[in-house]
Write a structure and sequence with these properties.
- The structure holds two protein chains of two kinds.
- By secondary structure, chain A is α/β, with parallel strands linked by helices.
- Chain A has 33 helices and 49 strands.
- Chain B has a four-stranded parallel beta sheet with strand order 2-1-3-4, with helices on both faces.
- Chain B contains four helices and four strands, in the order E-H-E-H-E-H-E-H.
- Classes of the chains: A alpha/beta, B alpha/beta.
- At the A-B interface, helix 3, helix 4, helix 5, helix 32 and helix 33 of A face helix 1, strand 2, helix 2 and helix 3 of B.
Chain lengths: 1112, 136
């Protein structure tokens, strides 16, 4: 039997003014189980609370209802009151008669009173069902986490650490300091910002109790007050901080330059950088954002950005070294590669892609011209001999990688000279033999042994000779036949044979008219060779259209310029001959039908459309195939008659024998063969050292996302100079002439450096401390803390979006932060404020106030508080730097906020010559090299037109990007603008609704340095208050399962967000759900999900809530 | 506007967001119709659809279930469960002969006092148009 006491509060006139309290009291007396009713003017006051306690004792009350303000206000207070009288504090229920009643219905006494009665009745009905609950005590981890290393976070960290507790300070930038580090002077004292900030920063860096995790971000937080578990991502700097001495040698050699964020894009920094000289930690960071698109597109993973970046700096030798880290074919691929890298080049989205292939060729030619030093042989550290069959690009690339791993190997080549199709297929005017020879010699100098004129047909013999593994790069060297009548007539040649003969130096005689059948590179090569051999009329016959031709487009273009004609949509059906000599070919016209297996539309002959071309020779170039007769026995083949291999490991069906290149894929390009050779080398190395062949393959390379292109000026790609048409006839001289040094550097400078750090590794060469590690991975740290301080700050609004004031349009319209960086002696202009357009000294400066603030259009409808003082400060400082500078400050509402010494400061600015004007800006326009600011003066009611040299936009602050994500994992509230919500805006300004998580600084609202420091200290105080307790009470409102009702469906387990529910097997074999009280947070999702209604949430049980429903 | 028929509304508000939002409406002295009676729950995910059906059974004209915005739930996922349960219940109400408009599921954050007040005015007006409910 409950004995309920009802205590109604007048709250002065807050409740009593709108609700007839005596009437409510009367109604309360009539409620079931109510034995005592009382009303008080101020229940939360001392006498008010004492009165409740007296009543509990005197009337032996065992339940208490208080009709007052919101329970979120005083539930804790009244629980203590009740406990003080010896009653369990959970036998209390509060009716919200103020926030939910009197304050929202101030003029409707009748209705408000009726509502108040309902609310009291609800509370009375509920409290009868409430049970005594006992909170458990949990321990406290006496370590704090501070998120954000700006001035607020720094202050909080120092205060907690100085009190003797460990602090983990997490900062996402490479250095702490936040925006205060960017300032030159601070208002109103005009202290040098760095001078007052850096001592605190240094203390943080050196404090024994502070574990600074810079360049890190908080990923996930779980747990509760006193017992938080945090996952922190430590991003990779690629520099070992314990070794870096901050000597500064690496940025000197770094070829990648980009806008400095710290200098607000007014200056540049390198990919390896320290954001500012006083940074803590004072260590370099390499900004590497992933793999550039060119590197990802290249089948062999060549680091194009690396060598392009070095070429742009004139470091050609070093650039070639970068390429040679991956493959040796600079000159070869620089001439014949199909350049998939250029297709994906991000520069192509601005104007045209970088001429990567041409730049690669330039490096090789530069070395050839200058003369190459002999390469030092690689030390052979392994014993296992490897046999490579075929010295084409696949075999040679495989050999290159394996010899550098220290393996002894031999390359077997059946032809008289090495190179495969590079030498015997591609014509001299595209790929001079000199280039091939140079690159093969290089490999031989490293230790690659090549045995020419040595065909291999017996693999058993190879293994018997002591070789432990074999790579087959035998290519696809036979021409496919057309299968048309007359194909065997003398005068019909097959492309590969023709090319081979010419490349061997054999004289091939052709007539005056030649037809070449096919559309691939072999056909184009054959046609252009025929032209040089003096053939007068050459026709290429291709069965599809121009768009479908697989040959390299530049090759097709040059061929047509050289006079070769192409007959599209035609195919030969018969070779015509007379006296056993070719006199022509009969062709049929084709049309494109539905796509075939390759995705290209299948050509279909048009009945009755035959026609004849008179020719003396036919060269057939319709495809290549694997010559099985030259290959060893026992190998498996695919349906296309190529070698069958595992797609990842390139292992054939014979153990220890791997294969790649054209022999496996059918005819493809050089770089694909190189890539295959490299993959096979990985497989062979793993095979010989007993490692798993498939692990971690294929390697996934993440392309860098979002390459910024702001400010990139369009510039056309350099055109490759070619040999004059007149000079080409009969000559096999190279047609593409290559770039000279000046052109190469110019073209390389167009590169956007997508990944920022290009991994050119010049930095490693100059780092004496050996601190650089480009393979470094990011780490996840897991920490346990008892309290968290969130001081993530705010960012400055981007002034370039305010084009109505000229922001982003005129370079001389800048932001206050940019002025700050210019004023700073360590800034991008060495402490001189200049016009960005021409570097001239500004005489007239106009400050525009409230840019983006109080302006609903740009979303920031609030006042940003600090800008007025910033403008006054900068006006004073400009005058100090150059007495002939005059500033206008144009404001709309008032000239500044209240604050300690603020008014005196603004008056000083005015006294020193600043003109304050109250008005509105209509436009900012360019006039005679200066800017013209037009507007209305509100005080004189006149228009003004001010010519100025510099316009400064006082933009406000906005919360940091991505802040919401962090707040969600912390479960703390934030508003629509992403600023943090305080537990109570007046009385609890640095607490949140989450116990144990405190907040400080600009993350709450725009604020200045002294307030940030104060809040940081206040947050620290709450942390220390927590740590000074023995233990804390855990909320007893947790859920419990009634095992009799539980059916063991475990639906509750699925819905619990905290993994607090597990299955439990009872002694009778039944499975039921079991809730871990320490993990349970009391949300009640499981209760609602439970179908048999077996779960009770203590404090919010079904009976209690139902009682409320029934009472209403 | 004083009219004869005043709809009766019960609101289940989650402690962390909506209840705080309603408090904020009070602190800011906003006005809204007096028809609502609020029941506090720890999370909108606590609200069993049976409570809502019971409300209608007892003659309540409209029920409001309010929680944190998706993504902001104090218990991470509670409001997702709310969303699903009440999407289902709404369809079922039709079957029971109760107009769907009588059940509202809204997301109100702790700083959205104004939104809460406007929401209630809107709900009350709509319910007044629908007229009184006949008991199930």
């Amino acid at each position: 039997m409950a004995r309920i006491g009802v205590f109604l509060c007048h709250c002065g006139s807050n409740i009593a003014g709108a609700v007839n309290v005596p009437v409510v009291a009367e109604a309360a007396r009539k409620l079931p189980q109510v034995v005592y009713v009382e009303d008080n003017k101020f229940t939360c006051s001392d006498p008010g609370q004492a009165s409740i306690q007296k009543a509990i004792t005197e009337h032996k009350l065992n339940r208490v209802v208080i009709g007052a303000c919101s329970p979120r206000m005083h539930e804790a207070t009244f629980r203590r009151t009740v406990a003080g009288a010896g009653l369990n504090p959970y036998l209390l229920e509060i009716a919200n008669l103020r926030e939910h009643c009197s304050w929202v219905h101030p003029d409707q006494v009748e209705e408000a009173t009726a509502k108040a009665i309902d609310l009291v009745r609800r509370a009375v009905a509920r409290v009868a069902w409430q049970e005594p609950l006992t909170p458990k005590h949990v321990g406290i981890t006496r370590r704090a986490l501070v998120i954000g290393g700006g001035i607020a976070g720094i202050q909080a960290s120092l205060d907690i650490a100085d009190a003797g507790y460990e602090v983990i300070l997490v900062e996402r930038e490479p250095s702490i300091g936040g925006h205060m580090a960017q300032l030159d002077k601070t208002f109103p004292t005009l202290d040098c910002s760095a001078c007052i900030l850096t001592p605190k920063m240094t203390m943080v860096g050196q404090h024994a109790n502070i574990k600074l995790m810079s360049y890190s971000e908080v990923e996930e937080v779980s747990g509760y007050i006193g017992n938080f578990r945090v996952k922190i991502k430590n991003k990779s700097r690629y520099i070992d901080m314990s070794k870096c001495t901050g000597c500064g040698e690496c940025p000197k050699v770094c070829p990648v330059e980009l806008n400095s964020e710290f200098n607000e894009n007014l200056g540049k920094r390198k990919a390896t950088y320290i954001p500012f000289p006083q940074a803590i930690p004072n260590k370099y960071t390499i900004d590497k954002r992933g793999y550039p698109p060119c590197r990802v597109a290249c089948p062999a993973g060549v680091n194009a950005q690396g060598y392009v970046a070095l070429i742009s700096q004139g470091k050609f030798k070093e650039a070639l070294e970068v390429l040679r880290r991956t493959m040796p074919f600079a000159g070869v691929c620089g001439r014949v590669c199909t350049h998939p890298c250029e297709k994906d080049c991000e520069r192509g989205k601005v104007d045209q892609p970088i001429a990567i292939r041409a730049l690669k060729r330039f490096m090789a030619d530069y070395e050839l011209k200058a003369g190459r030093e002999k390469a030092a042989p690689v030390e052979m550290t392994k014993e296992e001999k490897i046999a490579i069959i075929g010295s084409g690009p696949a075999g040679l690339a495989c050999a290159y990688d394996l010899v550098r791993l220290g393996y002894p190997l031999t390359v077997f080549e059946s032809a008289p000279e090495a190179g495969g199709l590079l030498r015997y297929g591609i014509p001299e005017y595209r790929l001079p033999k000199e280039v091939i020879n140079n690159e093969i010699s290089y490999m031989q100098e490293l230790g690659v042994e090549i045995k020419t004129d040595t065909p291999v047909k017996d693999l058993t013999k190879i293994f018997n000779e002591g070789f432990k593994a074999v790579f087959m790069g035998t290519g696809a060297g036979i021409s496919q036949k057309m299968g048309i009548p007359g194909e065997n007539t003398p005068g019909v040649l097959h492309a590969l044979d023709f090319l081979r003969q010419v490349n061997f130096g054999v004289k091939v005689s052709l007539g005056n008219k030649v037809a070449v059948v096919g559309g691939g590179n072999a056909a184009i090569d054959a046609a252009r060779i025929a032209q040089r051999l003096g053939v007068k009329e050459i026709t290429v016959v291709y069965r599809r259209g121009r768009a479908e031709m697989p040959a390299i487009p530049s090759e097709i273009e040059e061929m047509e310029r050289e006079g070769v004609k192409i007959k599209f949509l035609a195919a030969p059906v018969k070779v015509l001959s007379k006296d056993n000599k070719v006199i022509g070919i009969q062709c049929i016209r084709m049309e494109l039908g539905t796509p075939d297996a390759s995705g290209r539309r299948r050509p279909v002959p048009i009945k009755g459309s035959e026609f004849t071309i008179d020719v003396d020779n036919v060269i057939i170039a319709i495809g290549q195939g694997v010559d099985k007769s030259t290959l060893p026995e026992g190998l498996d083949y695919t349906n296309w008659e190529t070698l069958s291999v595992d797609p990842i490991t390139l292992q054939t069906n014979i153990d220890g024998v791997f294969a790649g290149g054209d022999a496996v894929s059918g005819p493809a390009d050089v770089i694909a063969a190189v890539a295959a050779g490299k993959e096979a080398a990985i497989s062979i190395d793993r095979y010989l050292s007993g490692q798993d062949l498939k692990e971690g393959r294929p390697e996934v390379r993440e392309k860098v996302k979002d390459v910024p292109k702001e400010g990139v000026v369009k510039k056309e790609r350099v055109v490759m100079p070619t040999l004059e048409l007149g000079k080409r006839g009969g000559s096999f001289a190279e047609v593409e002439l290559g770039f000279d040094e000046k052109t190469a550097i110019e073209e390389a400078k167009r590169c956007l450096n997508c990944a920022v750090c290009s991994e050119c590794r010049e930095c490693e060469k100059v780092c004496e401390a050996k601190a650089i590690d480009h393979e470094m991975q990011e780490k996840i740290s897991e920490e346990e803390v008892g309290a968290i301080v969130v001081a993530t700050g705010a960012d400055v609004l981007d002034h370039t979006q305010f084009s109505i004031y000229g922001g982003g349009v005129y370079p001389d319209v800048v932001s206050t932060l940019q002025i700050e960086r210019m004023m700073n002696a360590a800034g991008p202009t060495d402490g001189e404020v200049v016009r960005p357009s021409d570097g001239a000294h500004p005489k007239e400066v106009v400050f525009i106030s409230c840019v983006g603030s109080r302006d609903k259009r740009t979303g920031s409808g609030y006042c940003n508080k600090v800008c007025c003082m910033v403008m006054a400060k900068q006006a004073i400082m400009l005058k100090e730097h150059a007495p002939d500078t005059h500033s206008y400050i144009i404001y709309t509402v008032d000239r500044g906020p209240g604050g300690k010494i603020f008014e005196e400061f603004m008056t000083r600015a005015e006294k020193e010559g600043t003109t304050y004007m109250r008005g509105q800006i209509d436009s900012v326009a360019r006039q005679n090299g200066r800017l013209l600011i037009s507007g209305q003066d509100f005080l004189t009611n006149e228009t003004f037109n001010i010519p100025a040299d510099l316009v400064v936009l006082a933009t406000g602050l906005m919360p940091t990007e991505d802040a919401a994500r962090l707040f969600q994992t912390l479960h703390i509230s934030y508003d629509a603008k992403n600023y943090l919500v305080q537990a109570h805006p007046k009385l609890r300004p640095v607490e949140t609704a989450m116990d144990g998580i405190f907040i400080a600084g600009c993350a709450i609202a725009p604020t200045d340095v002294p307030e940030s420091v104060a809040q940081g200290g206040a947050a620290a105080e709450y942390v220390l208050k927590l740590f000074s307790q023995e233990s804390i009470e855990a909320e007893p409102m947790t859920s419990i399962v009634d095992i009799i009702r539980c059916t063991g469906c475990l639906l509750c387990k699925q819905v619990c967000p905290f993994q607090a529910i597990e299955a439990e097997t009872l002694r009778d074999g039944r499975t039921v759900a079991s809730i871990n009280e320490s993990l349970c947070k009391g949300c009640g999702i499981c209760v609602a999900a439970c179908r048999p209604g077996a779960i009770k949430l203590r404090g919010f049980s079904d009976q209690q809530i139902m009682a409320e429903v029934m009472a209403l | 506007m004083k009219s004869e028929y005043q709809p009766k509304v019960i609101g289940f508000l989650c402690n962390w967001c909506s209840y705080a939002g309603a408090d904020m409406a009070g602190t800011a002295r906003m006005r809204y119709p007096q028809n609502i009676r609020i029941i506090r729950v720890p999370c909108s995910g606590r609200v069993d659809p049976l409570f809502v059906v019971k409300c209608f059974q007892r003659g309540v004209d409209g029920v409001l279930v309010s929680g944190c915005h998706p993504g902001d739930c104090h218990y991470t996922e509670g409001n997702y469960h709310t969303r699903r349960r009440f999407a289902l219940l709404r369809e079922f109400l039709d079957y029971l002969g109760i107009a769907k408009e009588r059940l509202r599921v809204e997301w109100v954050s702790a700083s959205e006092g104004q939104k809460f007040a406007e929401l209630l005015s809107d709900f009350t007006t709509e319910l007044a148009k629908l007229g009184p409910r006949s008991r199930v």
